[in-house]
Design brief:
The complex is a heterodimer of chains A (about 300) and B (about 260).
Chain A lengths: L3 H14 L1 H38 L2 E3 L2 E3 L5 H8 L1 H35 L3 H9 L6 H12 L4 H9 L13 H11 L1 H13 L3 H9 L4 H12 L1 H16 L3 H6 L7 H9 L5 H33 L1
Chain B lengths: L1 H28 L16 H6 L3 H34 L5 H9 L6 H14 L6 H25 L3 H9 L4 H30 L2 H6 L6 H9 L5 H31 L3
Classes of the chains: A mainly alpha (about 300), B mainly alpha (about 260).
């Protein structure tokens, strides 16, 4: 690497000579190399969307599909109290999961970024469990929280409770707990990154200007990590609204979410047009809430600062 | 010292919370009883022994390995070229392309699954392992791209220039200079994308038809209490496999980022 400066002039003249042609071929190379991935993902995002929209405008008549365009599915979905109920519950559960996960993860990210001695080891320890199958982790929670499950039998054995706790499984609580566990690293990592980026001299300046530890955190550290918090919230909220496995396994009847209804339409109910409509509506609701959240969070971030 | 030690306590509790479910499956898979509760009745390997004789399970395993292998190769080859383009070249639409390729990470699983089912059926592709492979390649691509990007980030371009100056062609330079240097990144990407596919459930549930992958098979077993001990044993083996694969992947990823230092 030491002879690098010596080779610069040479590189310079060579690049100068063929700069125009080189630039065009560089652009072409970049486009060509990235094309397979871009086209693949682009196609599998756009094409299903188009077909989903088409299906949502068709109707299911027993075994065949009636291809006259109609908004009947949307009318049915928007007036059905069950759909509205599940949609609102999915969004509320996802919001609760997001809040719980980020709140629980923040101290950990703070600890690893600013206090821990062996950062890499801690980061590794936190990510390892999440490389195991999601299905199996949710299944494990079902076994832990069950009426005759691990938690109840352990608490009974120790003598902390005399009857098994019934509020542990098959409700919103178990869904939120399981999802808060499942998404933990996705909250820790973005917040950790934003904490890492904070310039220590800013904290020193706050200190010199006489602010206490709490004030320092609230007025310097927290506002500077808002981008990380927003990223964490979006990464968790968006997929959680459409989660299928957790509500199916630990949700019971009180914890069912919109994904369960969508699956029924594509499975047992065999009403794909309605399923497509619900998918689209779910996507739109998620997008709407996410945009609302980003706007208000950035606004709030500016006000704190 | 009270504040930091409070944080340390919290961190340890948090780790316990993270590891609780992952460690309980293996613990109870050795339990000599069919109910998952304390106290543990005794220790046995019976549940593991029984796994060997289940043909549908073995077929599901073969399906999963096959799907995982093909998806890993497809995602990694596309990721390799895309990452190289992103790191090495500047071109129009680059930011849009980079953002698009990351999109599969944030679309809710049920929406990917239902919309792909509808698309594939419309294109005449029945639910099958092929459909699952196409779907898993889509899901695994962002992982491959980000791993390969970090591999190319540390790649010294002057090495390639030297090869060109010494008279190597594009293909030869790629094969003899570029490829060996980013090889650890490729191995890491293959292992990670394989694991993503191997563990994926929702998409496979929608797209696999009558050829279940291992997670789909496990899903079908979960509702039978009598099958519980076997499912635990199988699940524990899967946990172990995933963690081992990723530790190896992490080893290669680190080698790839240090190799040019």
């Amino acid at each position: 690497m030491d002879d690098r400066p010596l080779s610069y002039p040479l590189e310079g003249t060579r690049a100068w000579g063929k700069s125009l042609a080189g630039l065009r071929s560089e652009k072409a190379k970049g486009l060509a190399l990235s094309a397979p991935a871009t086209v693949y993902v682009g196609f599998l995002v756009a094409a299903p969307l188009v077909i989903l929209v088409a299906y949502s405008l068709w109707t299911q008549t027993y075994v065949s599909i009636d291809r006259t365009l109609t908004l009947a599915n949307y009318r049915e979905a928007l007036t059905d109290p069950l759909v509205r109920h599940l949609m609102i519950r999915s969004i509320l559960i996802a919001a609760a999961v997001t809040l719980a996960t980020v709140a629980l993860a923040y101290p950990i990210a703070y600890f690893i970024a600013l206090k821990a001695q062996r950062k890499t080891l801690w980061l590794l320890l936190i990510t390892i469990p999440f490389w195991s199958s999601y299905l199996l982790r949710v299944f494990a929670w079902k076994l832990i929280l069950g009426f005759n499950g691990v938690m109840n039998s352990a608490l009974l054995g120790v003598g902390l409770i005399s009857d098994p706790l019934t509020f542990l499984l098959y409700n919103e609580f178990s869904v939120v707990l399981t999802l808060a566990h499942a998404w933990a690293p996705f909250a820790i990592l973005p917040i950790y990154v934003s904490l890492q980026k904070i310039d220590p001299s800013l904290l020193e300046a706050a200190n010199d200007l006489g602010s206490g530890k709490v004030q320092q955190f609230l007025r310097v550290t927290l506002p500077l990590t808002i981008p990380g918090i927003i990223a964490a919230c979006l990464i968790i909220f968006i997929p959680t609204v459409g989660d299928y496995v957790t509500p199916s396994l630990v949700g019971g009847s009180d914890g069912k979410m919109i994904a369960n209804l969508i699956q029924v339409q594509f499975g047992a109910a065999n009403n794909w047009p309605l399923g497509a409509t619900l998918s689209l509506l779910a996507m739109m609701s998620v997008g709407f809430v996410a945009i609302l959240f980003v706007l208000s969070a950035t606004g709030l971030g500016r006000r704190i600062r | 010292m009270t504040r930091p030690s409070g944080l340390v306590m919290y961190a340890i509790f948090y780790l316990a919370f993270l590891y609780l479910p992952v460690l309980l499956l293996p613990l109870f898979s050795f339990n000599d009883g069919t109910i998952v509760a304390f106290p543990i009745k005794g220790w046995t390997l019976e549940w593991y022994r029984q796994l060997g004789g289940q043909d549908t399970l073995l077929q599901a395993l073969v399906n999963s390995l096959f799907v995982g292998f093909v998806s890993a190769v497809m995602a990694t080859s596309m990721g390799l070229f895309a990452a190289r383009a992103y790191v090495r070249y500047r071109f129009r639409g680059q930011e849009a392309s980079e953002a698009l390729v990351m999109l599969p990470l944030v679309i809710p699983g049920i929406i990917v699954a239902s919309s792909m089912l509808v698309l594939f059926i419309s294109m005449g592709l029945k639910p099958s392992l092929t459909a699952v492979m196409l779907g898993h390649t889509f899901l695994a691509l962002p992982f491959s791209v980000s791993i390969m990007k970090s591999a190319f980030d540390d790649f010294d371009v002057s090495l390639e220039e030297a090869a060109y100056d010494l008279g190597s062609g594009v293909v030869e330079t790629f094969r003899r200079v570029t490829l060996p240097i980013v090889a650890p990144g490729i191995v890491s990407s293959l292992l990670v994308t394989f694991t993503v596919s191997f563990d994926e459930f929702v998409l496979a549930f929608f797209l696999s038809g009558n050829q279940p992958t291992l997670p789909v098979y496990i899903w079908s077993q979960i509702r039978f209490p009598a099958k519980l001990p076997n499912t635990l044993a199988l699940g524990s083996l899967l946990l172990l496999a995933s963690v081992l694969l990723l530790v190896v992947a992490e080893y290669f990823r680190r080698r790839s980022t240090k190799s040019t230092l």
